[in-house]
Write a sequence for this structure.
């Protein structure tokens, strides 16, 4: 049986920050086109459109991030990237729910490839202890830490963290 857990809902502050960032980037991107010759304008518009499009996709998809557990698979459907992994690579016995204090001891410190906004983190980060992690975090009180056998961990905030951990441990 496949169970799907949505990401804990991002705060309005996270959404507002991401929309504001998208708007600022769009405005900054328009300014060089005012003074550039036509062939350069086309390149600028294409690159800027891509950057603004990526930011807009993150904002639009942040409410649709899901973690699906079924059979031998954990399927993460994210904002910019998806990851489907066999549960055999997960160290499920060491998976645990974190309280706010525990979260602060391993918290994400350095973004490697992803999105970092107040109240919304997604993608690849280095954790405080130097461990690499694939994360989707919106609510520190719902954080779940799942180490893997492949040199990284998962740090996720499903809306139902206990249900998510139970689903991982079944079957």
């Amino acid at each position: 049986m496949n169970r799907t857990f949505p990401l804990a809902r991002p705060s309005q502050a996270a959404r507002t920050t991401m929309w504001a960032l998208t708007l600022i980037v769009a405005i900054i991107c328009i300014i060089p086109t005012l003074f550039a010759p036509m062939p350069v304008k086309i390149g600028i518009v294409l690159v800027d459109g891509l950057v603004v499009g990526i930011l807009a996709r993150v904002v639009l998809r942040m409410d649709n991030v899901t973690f699906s557990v079924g059979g031998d698979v954990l399927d993460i459907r994210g904002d910019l990237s998806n990851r489907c992994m066999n549960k055999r690579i997960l160290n499920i016995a060491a998976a645990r729910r974190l309280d706010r204090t525990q979260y602060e001891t391993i918290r994400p410190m350095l973004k490697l490839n992803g999105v970092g906004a107040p109240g919304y983190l997604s993608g690849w980060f280095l954790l405080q202890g130097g461990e690499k992690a694939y994360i989707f975090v919106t609510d520190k009180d719902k954080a779940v830490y799942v180490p893997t056998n492949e040199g990284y961990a998962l740090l996720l905030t499903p809306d139902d963290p206990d249900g998510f951990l139970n689903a991982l441990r079944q079957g």
About this structure: Residues 1-171 form one domain. The mean pLDDT is 90. The first strand starts at residue 3 and ends at 6. The radius of gyration is 18 Å.
